[in-house]
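Dock iron/sulfur cluster; give full complex structure.
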Amino acid sequence: MSLATTALTGLFSETDLTRINSLAATNFQNLGQKYQKFIAQVIRVLRENFPSATVYNDADLAQLAAIADVIGHDSRAMMKRLKTACTGCGWCCSKTKRIVVTEADADRISRKLKQKREALFVFNNGEWEIRQAQPCQWWNPRNGRCTIYNERPHTCRSWPLGINDNDINAIIPQSECNYAVVALAHKTVMLLQAIEAGQGVQPLAPAAGI
Ligand code: SF4
Ligand code: SF4
């Protein structure tokens, strides 16, 4: 049994732990290399900033980070506290291939900009998205700013929180986004602290909604 599994046994019931491990494994399976790259960045942040993480090897830390990723709802309040982790790199506005918005956002922004909705957005695979992405048509490469900041869609306001397949708020596993990486590192530290304290804590409940 890995050190991580042994440590977690003291926190969760056998049933919960089986469920949590299976959810974590699903992320590795479904997201493949993208998820591995994301977790590798989280491990780097943990090693650089949290001495208590050093007792674990990389495989253990990967397991703990993936588990931290699937327990507890990721709240806006937590993301607000961690906002300084955003480096302003502009990746989210310039490199995202598909920027999905709500229909209400598409309507509101088109009205505000006095343009036809279809000129700015496209309906694709059952969802509205910004017509021109990568970079986004409203990203100013000279200063890295959004030219419709006050009107930006909901998806941009909540990034790097997104809605996952189980309809809950979850950190988007984007290795290039320091904000997302630090947010999961933070959740992993909470898990490590709970392990150190030897107690199950309220926020650390399976949150897959299944
Ligand atoms: S609308 Fe603004 S915040 Fe959203 S992706 Fe485009 S430039 Fe970025
Ligand atoms: S990709 Fe992440 S770190 Fe970079 S600007 Fe966007 S939110 Fe900030």
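Observed: Residues 14-49 form the longest helix (36 residues).
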